[in-house]
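Structure tokens please, single chain.
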Amino acid sequence: MSASEALRGSKTFPVTATQFNTRIEALGWGDFDRVMGPLVFDLTYINMSVVVDDTFEERVGALWTAMFPNIDRELPPGLTQAELQGENFHKWRNAWYDVHTLWAHLNAERDVFVMTNTKDFQKNADKLALHGLKAVHTPAEALRILTN
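Here you go.
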């Protein structure tokens, strides 16, 4: 589970792990395991993320290249937070989120990756399979599979 998507009807994100967990409980998902993403200061919940190992940068770079070969992974020097949050870096932010979320899934050795936007994952399924991705489905697809 991830707290990286804005709350429905809002542009805000859960600011604390407590808010995120309250949101998850309200959805009825409290019994689901959480997949821990990489610890990124000022971005992730410290008690709900993992410290990465020596393979992290190489793995993230390989996933980025497989999924987003036309989006430069390196940000320009001197980029401000306001610029990073602006429209010019919308695709970069989405790529960063997708790659790091996939890394968390692979790091947790999960079988099915579930997310609402499957386009970039399914489009690159063959390349991502080489990195360990077994299956990607929308929540509706995953529910259909589980109930059949």
